[in-house]
Amino acid sequence: MSGTTVGLTSEREIARLISKVERGEVTDVAGELAFGTSAGAHVIGITGSPGSGKSTLVDVLARQMRADGRTVAILAIDPSSHLTGGAVLGDRVRMSSHSQDPGIFIRSMGTRGSTTGLARAARDAVKVLDAAGYDIVIVETVGVGQVELDVLTVADTVAVVLVPGLGDTMQMNKAGIMEIGDLFVVNMADRPETSRFVRDLKQALAVGARHSHTDMPPVCCTVALTGDGVADLWATLREFDERDQASGRRLARCQEQQSRELTRRIENQVMAMLHQTMDTSARL
């Protein structure tokens, strides 16, 4: 879809199918897709603690991507309202500056009172957006719990957003998020403690890289409110995508995701059969 836009009718179809996925009405997303199979979107996961400026960063980053001619779908995994069951940060309220851009699709998904099935629904929604032909799918998660970690397994590249002075590195280490980050974004980098924070972060990442025998992930500094550093962040994300495609890592990751998905489906089918057998036995 590079250089093109999604038509209004297609957007409605996409929204309708994602709604069905959220409600658990679709068990086979591939069978429901009416607009093609995987188109090879670059799926970018963006996570971090609440208050780290992720939504503002995603907003500015999407604008940078659009300026580069890319079409973008944003899937925001948000906390839910206890009254309505909908996402608190509504997709038309947040990032409203993109509302007139046909090259950006924004959708929020909430837990609706229970996290059960949210990770699966989010993964299936990414499949829908990929099949719709968007060049880039951004998955933004709120918080760093197990559900968010499960959602991020669908991403090709995971960016962890941190803020100086909030003790983020300690919290992220406890949550295990540091292990899945491909790159780290120090947002609000205009704070006076930024230099020391970046130095400490790089030291922690270097230790982790030595233990896991991997390269140290890059660290980007941004000020989302002003846009400073966002162009460099986008350039780094592009480099990840180009390198992963050239090395075959993207394909290998896709195959791994498909294998995990098949395993989950088999497990769910077996559990459903067991429950059905137990119910039948109880009635006899």
Automatic annotation (TrEMBL):
Pfam families: MeaB (PF03308)
Sequence intervals crossing the membrane: none
Key word Chloroplast present: no
UniProt keyword annotations, A-Z: Chaperone, GTP-binding, Hydrolase, Nucleotide-binding
Domain of life the protein comes from: Bacteria
Protein's recorded name: Methylmalonyl Co-A mutase-associated GTPase MeaB
SUPFAM superfamilies: P-loop containing nucleoside triphosphate hydrolases
Family indicated by similarity: Belongs to the SIMIBI class G3E GTPase family. ArgK/MeaB subfamily.
Residues covered by the AAA+ ATPase domain: 40-176
GO MF annotation, one: GTP binding
Keyword Transport: no
Xref: InterPro entries: AAA+_ATPase (IPR003593), GTPase/Isobutyryl-CoA_mutase (IPR052040), GTPase_ArgK (IPR005129), P-loop_NTPase (IPR027417)
Signal peptide boundaries: none
